[in-house]
Amino acid sequence: MLNPKNKRIFLDYASVTPVVEEVLEVMQKCARENFANPSALYEEGRESKEVMKSARQKITDSLKCRPQEIIFTSGGTESDNLAVLGVFQSAKNSGLVSPHIITTQIEHPAVLEACRQTERWGGEVTYLPVSEDGLVSVKDVENALKENTVLVSVMMANNEIGTIEPIAEIGRLIKKWREKKSSNFPYFHTDACQAVLYQDIDVRRLGVDFLTLDGIKMYGPRGIGILYQKFNVPLSQMLYGGGQERGLRSGTENLPAIVGLSKAFEIADSLREKESVRLSEIRGYAFAEILSAFPNAKINGSTEERLPNNINACFPGVDSEFLVVALDVEGIALSYSSTCRTLKEDSSSYVISALGRENCATSSLRITLGRQSTKGDIDSLVKALKKVLNLV
Amino acid sequence: MLNPKNKRIFLDYASVTPVVEEVLEVMQKCARENFANPSALYEEGRESKEVMKSARQKITDSLKCRPQEIIFTSGGTESDNLAVLGVFQSAKNSGLVSPHIITTQIEHPAVLEACRQTERWGGEVTYLPVSEDGLVSVKDVENALKENTVLVSVMMANNEIGTIEPIAEIGRLIKKWREKKSSNFPYFHTDACQAVLYQDIDVRRLGVDFLTLDGIKMYGPRGIGILYQKFNVPLSQMLYGGGQERGLRSGTENLPAIVGLSKAFEIADSLREKESVRLSEIRGYAFAEILSAFPNAKINGSTEERLPNNINACFPGVDSEFLVVALDVEGIALSYSSTCRTLKEDSSSYVISALGRENCATSSLRITLGRQSTKGDIDSLVKALKKVLNLV
Predict the structure, then answer these.
(1) Is residue B311 assigned to a domain?
(2) B35, B240, B251 ranked by CB distance to A16: nearest
(3) What is the pLDDT of residues B358-376, one digit of tens each?
(4) Which residue of B has its CA nearest to A112?
């Protein structure tokens, strides 16, 4: 059950996905039956440990990694922060004076703000531009690599415009560079929070050392995320204490959420292909309907290298915030940029600015589809848009 | 329902408390009905925001604070870390070269390890000893205060031996010192994770600037904690991103857990007095039974200034880990020190060492009571202890 008010249409799945009923059920069961601390020595503790082990093992099926390469965190923000700040601090601790990080101008604030923090700590950051299609160029990454580059962080798919970045290609480039330089650096991180429902996240194929995921973006529990950390890649901890998660993330493990996340992975894996096909079709329909109904409208970001659930359209001259508020009245829930941005009380999108479309940065809508979305939702959206834009 | 295997006896409530059924229910309801991001501008988002606001408001009833003084975190470890590292970094940023922190030798690892981290960052830490009763002396705190002291962190009640520290007295001392020196420093933090079920946590009465709580220790959800931060007291963030929690804790809010925690507070408030009386009586019974059955046994820590649910007994010459494992076989679940310590694969307790009882550090049992505990559990425990110690 997605929306209790079934007259409303939810088109903001990039912000949040509802928790699947099956996930809620396994979480309840776990909270009732396995409440003991997984570090406890007695029977109930050992059982909790087994439950955690089995949930971790199941998740390795999706990531194609080893169980000890998964760090459970409190969510995507913590995972991104841990990758960026953890690699930076570890490099500093190993004697590097001013470690250099390469990232892009369209990353999620959890990466961008962590990068800015490394600058305050004496680091150096290159924020790569993207093409007008919202794609980072592998050549640009190559040109930005330096002797002191310790990390490249490029998101797998953008949270506002859904563009899919060339992660595997960048992975190969970095591998070559490291071989040529006989260096362990740079490590490669990707935020795959938006991509996981539609893209293959095999970490070996992608060639990444770190990968971020979040339950909230994959119909899973809130307050739980993952940082995949390649075996033997050094990382400094950010949370200090009891030494859980191999000393990299202290704090008693959130077992019900871990079990729920494992179930969310299982469901995501089983639906990935089918949903990608189904939503691609709805997306194509939406592009056509929007462009035909509003001839001035433009789609932001590549329409090819793009998540099947993402539609981001510019309505030149119309204020994004007005559109969101007016559509809300018409029963449609969506955003003008990433939800996190609304906290800054800044209705302009830095992602769309980075496409070179300054005039669209305050005139665009992010329409994101999910498991409950239908073509009918697009019809309702277009109808409502016509109404609020006084075209009917 | 505490324990599905009703033949087993759980005496490790200081490690973890089961989630109350009512808490699970409000969490389920919230996950189903309020899945939207509280930062979203549309109706569902505004409703989530209202739900969060109301949960936050309810929690202020227990803490006697303002809503904007509550920071939701992922748990006690993060809250402790945020207080210690956040105050330290904020002081450094304001120009202090080597900020000084005062804490005790018996704090939880989440405080101790964070303090050690500040030493690696150029800070200075005083780890105060405690009396043989496990109590910190207010005079010792006073003598340790220096011009560069930025934080005093003393736990409200110890997680291993249950001793209740003189927080309100230390609060008054610090207030006087600040007035005398016309300084904002030092701030005062207390970890109240173990105390909240039995002690009044009115932050004004305690005179604290920061206070840590964790759902897992109060029959609430996992993966959620609180850091109370007194209004206007400066703090550096540890998680960078979307700017949630007034910029102090980025990451989408874990709404079901926040709502569940609020319910856990409500229940804790309603049971505090009654459970304190009931468990004090069982604790007194346990002290008497243990000391009479095992004349060599000693109680670790003050028997007066002590949480009603804590029994920590030394059995000289007997290995703690052996006891825990043997009692487990007899159907009794308890710990030898804090659960976090077992991760270090070190069966010695630094808390009991700090009492000057080196020989008890590896020969003690932590027996902690909770809502399901009865006198009959103590009878079973004593009987099992006699069996494993070959006294029958």
Answers:
(1) yes
(2) B35
(3) 899 999 999 999 999 999 9
(4) B241
Residue whose tokens read 């992922």: B74
The nearest CA of chain B is from the CA of A121 a distance in Å of 11
CA distance B179 to chain A (A): 33
As annotated, the active-site residues of A are: 340
Chain A residue whose CA is closest to B334? A42
What is the Cα–Cα distance from B45 to B42, expressed in whole angstroms?
5
Q: Which residues of A touch B238 (CB under 8 A)?
A: 238
Q: How far apart are CA B208 and CA B199, in angstroms?
A: 15
Question: Cα–chain-centroid distance for residue A70?
Answer: 17
Whether omega for the bond prior to residue A186 falls within 30 degrees of 0, making it cis, is yes
**For the residues A342-371, what does the mean pLDDT come to?**
88
- Binning chain A into helix, strand and coil, the percentages to the nearest 5 are 45, 15, 40
Which domain CATH number covers A59? 3.40.640.10
Question: What is the share, in percent, of chain B residues with pLDDT greater than 70?
Answer: 96
Count of domains observed in chain A: 2
Same domain, A310 and A235: no
Tokens of A260: 């729920």
pLDDT for A66-92, tens place per residue? 999 999 999 999 999 999 999 999 999
Asked if residue A331 and residue A260 are part of one domain, the reply reads no
* Separation of alpha carbons B209 and B152, rounded Å: 10
pTM of the model: 0.95
Contacts of A3 in chain B (CB under 8 A): 44
Q: Is A3 contained in some domain? A: no
A7 falls in which pLDDT band (50, 70, 90)?
confident
* Domain contains A54: yes
CB B373 within 8 A of CB B11: yes
Confidence label for A6 from pLDDT (cuts 50, 70 and 90): low
Q: How many CB atoms lie within 10 A of CB A96?
A: 16
Closest residue of chain A to B244, computed from CA coordinates: A343
Per-residue model confidence as pLDDT tens digits over A230-266: 999 999 999 999 999 999 999 999 999 999 999 999 9
